[in-house]
Amino acid sequence: MSSNVLAMEPARTLHHGSKPDRAEVEAAVRTIIRWSGDNPDREGLVETPTRVTRAFEEAFVGYAEDPAAILQKSFDEIEGYDEMIVLRGIRFESHCEHHMAPILGRAWVGYMPGDRVVGISKLARVVESFAKRLQIQEKLTAQIANTINEVLNPRGVGVVIRATHHCMTTRGVRKPDTDLVTSRMLGCFRDDPQLRREFLGETA
Ligand SMILES: [Zn+2]
Fold first, then answer.
1. pLDDT at 28
2. Is 188 considered catalytic here?
3. Nearest-angstrom CA–CA distance, 110 and 57
4. What is the predicted pLDDT for the residue at 15?
5. Which of 9, 93, 99, 138 is an active site residue?
6. Is 167 a residue of the active site?
7. How far apart are CA 189 and CA 155, in angstroms?
8. Which one of the listed residues 65, 95, 135, 165 is annotated catalytic?
9. N or C: fewer beta carbons within 10 Å in the chain?
């Protein structure tokens, strides 16, 4: 997938077909329990479909959010501040779209402001709203950087993500000590090697 396609993808992902209701999702969880070989009606499992559905609701809350809207409120009274701004090590939990297994990681988000800055918590909220979806890390990294770039129009954006993927640490090839590092650099973060090094130094 080219970065162009990523940039054009709407921030709010559309549901395909009608959205199932909660009872349908709980029934699906009961089916998985039965298929596993256990009895969904025994005491320890009776509430499990409800709990799992609630957990998925939390895991995928990002589909109901519009990350671009989060960045709409910005400030221009910055007294000429024109140096790099970096929010470091933002913890997030996501789920991989191939196995629905957890992706646990941290994101470093930096930008060089134009004439506006955003409240720093907004940067973390943008990470959250893209993470709380079915994802691959490469796309998550690009979506965060592209959205900041498009909405805030800064001189540059850098995003680095380090994450462990449970689909390969606890299952599959079982390589527990691996993490995946991805980055996306735009504007002066891409063009200025010194700035890029300075930013990457913050992520070490
Ligand atoms: Zn996976």
1. 98
2. no
3. 30
4. 61
5. 99
6. yes
7. 8
8. 165
9. C
